Amino acid sequence: ELVTAARHSIVQEIPIANTSIQEWTIRPHLKPTNADAGSGQDCVFKIQSEVRVPPRSTVTCALTFTPRRKCDATAELVMTNIAHQQSSSISATGADKMIYVLHGIGEDPLPEDTITIDCVARQEIRKKINVPSINRDGSAISYKVICDVVSCSGEPKHSVDIKFTSGTSSSQNVSAQAQKEKDDKFLLGKDYNNSDTGNTSQLPQPIVSPRTPSGMNEYELVVFSTHSGREEGTLMFVTEDEQVIWYPIVVNCKAPNIEDVINVKTSVRNPVAIDIALFNPSIQDRALFGVRIQGNSLSGSEYFTLEPNSANIYSLVYAPVISTPRVLRPDKQKKSNEKDGKVRSKDKQREKEKIKENDEDLYGENASICFSSSTIGEFWYELHLTCDPIEPDELTEMNCELGMVAVQVVNIENPLNTELRLDCLSN
């Protein structure tokens, strides 16, 4: 049994031991026994047309199995001693023929090189892919193209037109290939061993040899992803007789640039609403957005819908319960660093104090919100959130006689949609 991937070859060497004193001439003959085995030049099994075995020696005859597609092929191999049919034999029983039953399994073809594509959401890129011709003579071939990656598209059909190198015509290439095959048919097998006896029923392990593409042509793959993330799939080129070339596809899509930076400022337990305007440019399709919020003390709906060719406001609530530390804005920080390099060391502290005096240059923490739609794509907004502390509330004066108890109720408001657990400390 011979097993290999489609369009790959596996070679099984069959030893023939001649224990007589006369030279043998062995003529192999293949008889396909099912449709998958093919016939004539299309037969998946190949063997030398003639093998000469010197007296008292052993040579090998190479049987090659090369399936062009996934298959389960069977055939019969008859090896006849035509030179001495009357006086000698090639088997232990004295017969002049040896018969082998062949079984070849062609598995799914192996993938070509993995194609990795890096892109940015909502930005189209084009990737050119070298597609080989799988015809044995390297001639032109047409493929049907199938791709299961959502963000990839291209022409549904692709033709590979092979151009021969300068100085060599197509007929010369075909003639050279035919001559090579003709020469191979009459090559003698190499010595298997030098002993006088041999066991032809025990065959050595098969040798697998990879195929070599005979021609290339470029196919243009268009990649346009509406969302950031990673996609994996396959790109297949299928011939009319169901031969397949396929490539693993990996698309790494980065998030698009932010649409806007929104600065928000409030104080502890003083919630504010952030209104973000969105527009659906599609004339026919409704846009359903999934909303991803990253940041503390932010809340909003997980979904947002826009009718075709319409705009609306999404409301995001910022309700902090603790103040945020103050840091210099990124753009101001860069300018400050450049300025610090020019100012003398004794003036650095003075420059930093001047920057801190301008409250607009400071903010609390970073946050973001992303609107993701399968129809119009992904939109990011960066939030700079600032929460100032508030002055402590002064309770009314409490008077109580010695040994008695006075009670005062303190109202605490929770601006969040979730339960708060508070620790009470008193000094």
UniProtKB/TrEMBL annotation:
Biased composition (Basic and acidic residues): 329-357
Disordered as annotated region, ranges: 329-358
Annotated Gene Ontology cellular component terms: cilium
GO biological process, one term: cilium assembly
Listed name of the protein: Putative Calponin homology domain
Organism: Streblomastix strix
